[in-house]
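stage 2 :: seqdesign
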């Protein structure tokens, strides 16, 4: 990767020896300090250069992948011109042609060559075609493991802090999570990742995948013993002395841990996975455990008590085992009777070695009871963390993002993406024969015992369908028994203090209500209280009528 970027802007010279000049190019590109060279479409072209640095050229492997893409691609309407194959319908379609679009995508290369008066070199063989290349799966897996490891790193943090924690268990966690992330590229039946798939998955599901490279390569910019407060003996001019000197920041003696305490679902590897689509400054050193089903109890009351006073965004995580297609006991049969008779297939094949699923949601607002309408805003997000990494972003079509419903409001339970039925005077919640779940939705029943994730490819609800190329056009529904349920608060000390004060206030109110008890044995006090309530006195005996 670095040796390719070191040869920039001459790809034919790669792999390059990492001289000081070549290393400077690598650091400049990987820390995204290219603003002076590239004026527009910076992120897109930067991503293309990263792909080129990872890819190899294998026409045989590429041909087999393209053949599979043609089989999986949706059929085009008859009026579509032949010869303009779109492949997967990603948000920013890529043509196989190399004309004006290829020249535009190489703006970064052109700008660099123009500064060296070497445009003619580019026109005679220095163009590299991303459409004839793939990223080998094994190489990409190792890179994802590295990105998971360095995701929490800070520019001023020593790399040795991460090396000492690389136990066998930690390495295994990283490898398992990396395989899950890699599965979103559909590599099970392919020898590598094409640019079309790479661009689609990174853009929709892993927008912050490479953010860890920035602080990692910033370590090359400054020496460990570099001190701006020290002046060179031969440069002690009055002009320099007039400028303020800012010493480099000192390392923190006891840094705050990245994750205060691991949960049953959330560990350091999963936290890094979350940072690939939720900004790390909202996660690292800022997550606080609010609720755990196995600790606080699987009930709506426990969930409400632990979560509702958190006045900041939160993350819900749920994990469970896929239910069999035929109910095996009364509880599963009750769940099956609540759903429409036509059952969609599961997202896990029968040949899969594991039936464990993990889903989650980012809830941007404070939780509350929903009697008439859902809460949340367009920054809400549904996601799947295993066995495949996938993201379902909020849609503007509907605002039924998050609900917490108790009887008689339907659907009873906790979920996202399902609208609450309009209630009128003639509305009878018990008359509904089945749950009407949203096109892309997650629902947990009111006993927090079962979960249902539904995905309809046509969308039309509060969340967009999957943007993964190999999942395009697929409908499925995963019904699972909940094993673990967690809610984590995103925030700092201020949010935690506000929650603590709210809990203390509620405790005082509950204690005051408990003390209002007529059975204390003080008859005079009880009589005065009844008089104040107007129940006795003034020709009222307080007896039965």
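stage 2 :: out
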């Amino acid at each position: 990767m670095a040796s390719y970027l070191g040869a920039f802007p001459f790809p034919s010279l790669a792999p390059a020896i990492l001289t000081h000049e070549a290393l400077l190019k690598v650091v400049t590109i990987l820390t995204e300090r290219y603003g002076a060279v590239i004026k527009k479409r910076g992120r897109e072209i930067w991503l293309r250069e990263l792909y080129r640095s990872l890819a190899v050229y294998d026409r045989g492997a590429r041909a087999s992948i393209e053949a599979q893409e043609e089989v999986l691609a949706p059929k085009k309407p008859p009026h579509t011109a032949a010869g303009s194959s779109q492949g997967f319908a990603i948000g920013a379609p890529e043509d196989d042609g190399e004309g004006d679009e290829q020249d535009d995508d190489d703006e970064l290369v052109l700008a660099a060559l123009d500064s060296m008066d070497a445009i003619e070199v580019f026109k005679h063989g220095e163009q590299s075609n991303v459409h004839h290349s793939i990223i080998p799966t094994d190489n990409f897996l190792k890179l994802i493991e590295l990105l998971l490891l360095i995701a929490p790193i800070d520019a001023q943090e020593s790399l040795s802090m991460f090396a000492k924690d690389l136990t066998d268990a930690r390495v295994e966690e990283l490898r398992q999570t990396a395989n899950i992330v890699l599965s979103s590229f559909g590599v099970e039946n392919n020898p590598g990742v094409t640019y079309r798939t790479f661009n689609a998955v990174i853009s929709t599901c892993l927008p912050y995948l490479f953010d860890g490279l920035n602080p990692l390569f910033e370590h090359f910019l400054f020496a460990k013993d570099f001190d701006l407060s020290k002046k060179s003996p031969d440069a002690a001019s009055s002009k320099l002395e007039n400028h303020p000197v800012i010493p480099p920041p000192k390392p923190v003696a006891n840094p705050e841990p990245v994750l205060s305490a691991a949960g049953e679902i959330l560990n350091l590897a999963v936290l890094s996975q979350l940072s690939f689509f939720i900004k790390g400054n909202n996660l690292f050193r800022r997550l606080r455990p609010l609720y755990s089903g196995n600790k606080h109890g699987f009930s709506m009351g426990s969930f409400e008590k632990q979560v509702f006073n958190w006045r900041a965004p939160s993350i819900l995580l749920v994990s469970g085992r896929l239910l069999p297609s035929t109910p095996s006991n009364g509880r599963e049969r009750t769940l099956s009777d609540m759903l429409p008779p036509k059952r969609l297939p599961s997202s896990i094949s029968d040949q899969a070695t594991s039936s464990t699923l993990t889903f989650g949601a980012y809830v941007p607002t404070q939780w509350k009871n929903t009697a008439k309408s859902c809460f949340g805003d367009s920054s809400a997000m549904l996601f799947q963390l295993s066995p495949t990494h996938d993201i379902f972003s909020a849609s503007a079509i509907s605002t039924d993002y998050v609900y917490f419903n108790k009887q008689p409001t339907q659907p009873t339970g906790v979920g996202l993406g399902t609208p609450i039925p309009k209630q009128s005077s003639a509305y009878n919640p018990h008359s509904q024969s089945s749950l009407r779940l949203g096109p892309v939705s997650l629902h947990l029943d009111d006993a927090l015992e079962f979960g249902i994730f539904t995905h309809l490819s046509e969308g039309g609800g509060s969340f967009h369908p999957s943007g993964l190329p190999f999942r395009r056009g697929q409908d499925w529904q995963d019904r699972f028994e909940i094993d673990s349920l967690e809610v984590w608060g995103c925030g700092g000390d201020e949010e935690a203090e506000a929650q603590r004060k709210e809990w203390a206030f509620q405790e005082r109110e509950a204690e005051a209500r408990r003390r209002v008890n007529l059975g204390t044995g003080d008859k005079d006090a009880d009589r005065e209280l009844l008089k104040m309530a107007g129940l006795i006195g003034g020709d009222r005996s307080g007896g039965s009528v």
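stage 3 :: structure notes
- The first strand starts at residue 135 and ends at 136.
- The mean pLDDT is 79.
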